[in-house]
Amino acid sequence: METRQRDTVVVSYGEIGTKSSKVRGRMERTLVSNLEAMLAARGVDADVERQWSRPLIRLRNLEEVDAGAGRSPATYRTLSDDAADAVANTFGVVAARPAVTCAPEREALLDLLSSLADDQAAAESFAVRVSRAGPKDAHDFGSRELERVGGAAIEERTGAPVDLDSPDVTYRVEAREDEAFVSTEVRDGPGGLPLGTQGTAVGLVSGGIDSPVAAWEVMKRGCVVVPVYVDLGDFGGPDHEARAVSTMRRLATFAPGFDVRPRVVSAGDLVAELADEVGATRMLSLRRMMLRIGETVARDVGAHAVVTGESLGQKSSQTGPNFAVTDAVTSLPVYRPLLTRDKTDIVAQARRIGTYDDSTLPVGCERVAPSRPETNAALEDVAAAEPDGLLRRAEKVAQAVRVVEFG
Ligand code: ATP
Ligand code: MG
User: 282-301 vs 320-327: helix axis angle to the nearest 10?
Assistant: First the structure.
């Protein structure tokens, strides 16, 4: 007898589909290997196939589950939930649907839809959506026809009405030539592009709320982000580093198989000197020092850009004119994915991706800030007030970067 349990996860991607066939093929292969790494990192026993160019996850150990004592719908549900969770956390994926496999035939599908309807007794309304792939005569039903008769069968079973505009539950049938997949649940993925398809950047990560979100956004677009924490000495401390490393650990769960171990650069002496010697433009020199550190590590790890969590007008050093002054120290592009984002929105995203920390430790560099910081600096004035050789010495400390193992 055919299994009625969820044995696959159907994966949908978005922007990859708009690429030329050559680029798309390469991105699909990267997506498949990233999905494999994500499933393995989470201990989900599953195979990733490329079917009709789209990845399909098949749970692997179902026969063993069947053979053992634990054969129950709940077991299948947990396995497919874990697999769908892994898929929905993989960059490039738009949707993950835990699905039941079935023969792509009218009677079998009607039968399956009715049996799935029994689990959806509480739903107040529903819709059936059918799509078919393969030769025209591959199926003994038409898509619209199956939607109609399937809908009637479900309505009879549950008493719930069809609502095509905002259904409580959508029964989605994807019929291919050899098999069909039926799902009633969808998990949204992050979208974006597969990690590793857009090279590498260095991310300046402070352990505050913004910078991990910024790194995540750049990772979402397919760029691996090597995180760098700058130890500010007396203005920072072990608790700051520990927090930064813990957010980096969380970020790394989105990048299994890539070397995103934390890099730590000790800049305490330079920061102390800045605090002693520089007045209103101190924060700008601090940022310039950090960007030069980022650039130096970037050259070391083969990265093409530096990412920060800065947002327009959030702090005195984050005004338009000041960005021009800070960016002058690097020839690499500075990515500021949060430039236009409001703090409330950034906080909400940090909670969603699991990098939010509600301790009140004042991280970032606010403890270094002077009482009247400059918001409209001129490059010459900032450079003139800077301690001798600040940028050259920033490069030097960055060359002594320390790699932290997650252990
Ligand atoms: P967050 O890191 O969440 O932005 P914050 O807003 O308090 O915390 P800012 O002082 O605004 O930090 O710093 C702006 C940006 O500079 C940060 O987003 C981060 O990219 C970088 N940065 C600040 N402090 C450090 C640090 N100690 N190590 C690495 N990068 C840092
Ligand atoms: Mg900030």
Answer: 50
Ligand 1 mean position to 367 CA, how many Å? Answer: 12
Distance from the alpha carbon of residue 315 to the mean position of ligand 2, in angstroms:
7
User: What is 8-188's CATH number, 3.40.50.2000, 3.40.228.10, 3.40.50.20, 3.30.2130.30?
Assistant: 3.30.2130.30
The 3-class secondary structure across 302-367, one letter per residue, is CCCCEECCCCCCCCHHHCHHHHHHHHCCCCCCEECCCCCCCHHHHHHHHHHHCCCCCCCCCCCCHH
Backbone torsions φ then ψ of 172, nearest 5 degrees: -110, 120
Structure tokens at 367: 């403890």
CATH 3.30.2130.30 domain span(s) along the chain: 8-188
Q: Does residue 262's CB lie within 6 angstroms of at least one atom of ligand 1?
A: no
State the pLDDT at residue 72.
62
What type of residue sits at position 78?
T
d(C-alpha 401, C-alpha 229), whole Å: 10
Domain 200-403 fold is Rossmann fold (3.40.50)
Angle between helices 390-399 and 282-301 (to 10 degrees): 40
In this prediction the pTM is 0.93
Lookup: tokens for 238: 């072990």
Q: How many other C-beta atoms can be found within 10 angstroms of the C-beta atom of residue 31?
A: 27
**Location of each CATH 3.40.50.620 domain in the chain:** 200-403
Strands 263-266 and 224-231: parallel
Q: Which residues pair with 263 in a beta bridge?
A: 228, 403
Sequence-distant (≥ 6) Cβ neighbours of residue 96 within 8 angstroms: 9, 10, 11, 12, 84, 87, 88, 186, 187, 189
Which residues are CB-contacts of 368 (< 8 A; sequence separation ≥ 6)?
232, 235, 271, 274, 275, 282, 283, 286
Three-class DSSP labels, 369-382: CCCCCCCCCCHHHH
The radius of gyration computed from the CA coordinates of the chain, to the nearest angstrom, equals 26
To test the pocket of ligand 1, the residue of 202, 205, 209, 210 to mutate (highest count of ligand atoms within 8 Å of its CB) is 210
Ligand nearest 336 Cα, by number?
A: 1
Mean pLDDT by runs of 10 across the 407 residues of the chain is 74 92 94 97 93 84 58 71 96 96 96 94 95 92 97 96 96 95 97 98 95 98 98 87 94 97 97 94 95 98 98 88 94 98 96 83 70 84 94 98 92
